[in-house]
Design a protein that fits this description.
The protein has about 290 residues and is mainly alpha-helical. It is built from 12 helices and no strands. Helix 1 packs parallel to helix 9 and helix 10 runs antiparallel to helix 11. It is globular and about 50 Å long.
Length: about 290
């Protein structure tokens, strides 16, 4: 087992425990960019590891009562079959160099969308009066929830990214009055069957590398438990800002950006993230912690 890979899994697990996001969006590009794992193998190994890691965070929210089960159910109606379909599409396309390149580009685009999701979540927190949660009535919208869940599931099946960050965008758009803790809890719980369906597809089609998945799991499970404990103390807004910068850098690299563009993009992202976090803390100190 690669101890450095396990350490990377530990770091990613902490981020997931702190924010409810970033599992596939961080681990898959780390495997591709730093460990030289082929994109398809990285996607499948990360999905299997996430299928084991996600329930730890989800169980905490179930015990706290911060899960909207009707929304979870309708999201899963669309996301579970479409996640498996995404894996089937990869199987149909084959495993040649061209397909690996397409998966890498799709991963880069998914990461860009994940950054949008993080920004949307931060802006939503800033718009909440006083930065606090409000237990406002939430009317479940079955058809839009199923459709958007299906789109998110397809992205997850193809790239392993989105079970947290992209679905958050869906929930923010459809249910803007949802409390922050219910938003995270609902997202984490719906991600469990979603990721499991995609992981099962990769296992059946032989894309899984057990040694990679095992190393990631060894680090990520204790990491997510530690992150969940730290979440009560760490400034969540600052963590999300840092995560957005990392995701943007990974996306630009996967999309083939040159060194100058990569450095410039990261510099702008750091400036924007720092400014946004500062303004959020000034306006809503409580929101910056969620």
């Amino acid at each position: 087992m690669n101890p450095v890979l396990a350490l990377a899994g530990f770091g990613v697990g902490i981020v997931v425990g702190l924010t409810g996001m970033g599992g596939g969006a961080l681990m898959t590009p780390i495997l591709v960019l730093f460990f030289g794992v082929p994109p398809l193998a990285a996607v499948s190994s990360d999905l299997v590891a996430s299928a084991v890691m996600k329930p730890f965070g989800g169980l905490v929210h179930v015990r706290r009562g911060s899960v909207r089960w009707p929304i979870v159910g309708w999201l899963c109606v669309g996301s579970i079959p479409s996640a498996f379909l995404g894996v089937v599409l990869l199987r149909v396309l084959g495993r040649g160099a061209g397909v690996q390149h397409v998966v890498q580009l799709a991963l880069g685009v998914a990461l860009m969308l994940a950054v949008v999701g993080l920004v949307a979540k931060t802006l939503s927190a800033a718009r909440r009066p006083g930065g606090t949660d409000h237990d406002a009535p939430v009317r479940v919208r079955p058809l839009p929830t199923v459709v958007l869940g299906a789109l998110g599931g397809l992205v997850v099946g193809l790239t392993s990214v989105g079970s947290g960050s992209l679905i958050i965008v869906v929930l923010l758009a459809l249910y803007p009055t949802l409390r922050a803790r219910d938003l995270v809890g609902t997202d984490l719980v719906q991600a469990i069957p979603l990721v499991a369906a995609a992981a099962l597809g990769h296992v059946l089609f032989g894309d899984l590398h057990l040694d990679i998945a095992a190393a990631v799991l060894v680090g990520s499970v204790p990491g997510v438990l530690l992150g969940a404990r730290l979440s009560a103390y760490a400034p969540g807004g600052l963590v999300r800002a840092a995560l957005a910068v990392v995701l943007l850098a990974s996306a630009l690299k996967l999309l083939g950006a040159g060194s100058v563009l990569l450095v410039a993009g990261v510099a702008v992202a750091v400036a924007v993230a720092a400014g946004g976090s500062y303004l959020l803390r000034r306006r809503h100190p409580a929101a910056a912690m969620t």
